[in-house]
User: What shape does this take?
Amino acid sequence: MARPVKEKFDVTRLRFVLLGLLVGLMSGTVVSAFRYCIEVGLRYSRLVYGHLRIAPFVWWQWALLIGVNLGLALIVAWLLKKEPYISGSGIPQVEGQLAGELEMHWWSILWRKFVGGVLALGPGLFLGREGPSIQLGASVGQGLAARFKLSGTDRRLLIASGSAAGLAAAFNAPIAGTLFVLEEVYHNFSPLVWLTALAGAIGSDFVSLNVFGLVPVLHLSYSRS
Assistant: This one.
């Protein structure tokens, strides 16, 4: 009687799950630092605007505030001139990269998007960290792919995993980050893409939860009447 054939262990899936987890841990660290810097900037911005709102009108204080904001805007504009691909949310750039239509230098994107995002979001000049976090995570995934000398589909898997990890760390939402990447960025529902993106999102969420705690980002408090 013939023995039943044992299924061969899928080493490829395990390899990409581990790589996705590594991408997630590193993306979570970067995006958590990004979130922290933004929150510190917004905290001081609220203090400044609160002081100006209740204090007697002093023209030079308002002039100084406007001058600082203009200076920050000029720095962001300079960063955009040096690296045009950091403009906007960054999601279309990641989509173009995964589609093979764009080629970007990951380190140039990473540090300029980080600095520009903090300078723009921290003082309250713009609103929204979703897109920048996705592009930061994708840059981390691209950097690790370059480090391990991956190309083609393997490289795109790590970029997609970094995108999911970036969104997961931005809002402590690993499932939402994974589904968003599958539906809006990668447009592919293969098990390997799903597992790699989910591993990255879970690793990233683990880091952000240890930094910011278990309170949801969109926390709505209510009182019982």
Q: What stands out?
A: The first helix runs from residue 11 to 54.
